[in-house]
Amino acid sequence: MLDRGRERCGIVTIDVRGHDAADLKLRLRERGINTSSSDRDDGVLDMDEKRATTVLRFSPHYYNTTDELAAAVEVLGELIRR
After folding, report:
1. For residue 15, how far is the Cα from the chain centroid?
2. What is the 3-state secondary structure (H, E, C) of 52-73?
3. Secondary structure of the chain in HEC code, one letter for each residue
4. Which end of the chain is more exposed for a tag (fewer CB within 10 A), N or C?
5. Domain-embedded: residue 46
6. CATH code for the domain of 24
């Protein structure tokens, strides 16, 4: 997890080492989970400092349920274990 701010919110940005975030985003969307991705050009200073090249961003909202959040984590885990 790359978010290091003093005050945190529901938005979570992660670097899944060894996986391209844009590819993960597409594979998650195939399973009904919406995320966004960015690469180094979108945040040079921040990404260089954190040694990330691509990141995946989860932005849950008030209408997302705990079960939906758990499903997103579970599916991401399945995808990165393959």
Report:
1. 7
2. CCEEEEECCCCCCCHHHHHHHH
3. CCCCCCCCCCCEEECCCCCCHHHHHHHHHHCCCCCEEEEHHHCHHHHHHHCCCEEEEECCCCCCCHHHHHHHHHHHHHHHHC
4. C
5. yes
6. 3.90.1150.10
The answer to whether residue 5 sits within a structural domain is no
Question: Which residue ranges in the chain fall short of pLDDT 50?
Answer: none
Domain containing 70 equals: 12-81
Q: What is the pTM of this model?
A: 0.78
Q: Which residues pair with 12 in a beta bridge?
A: 58
Residue 50 near residue 67 (C-beta atoms within 8 A): no
In a domain, 20, yes or no: yes
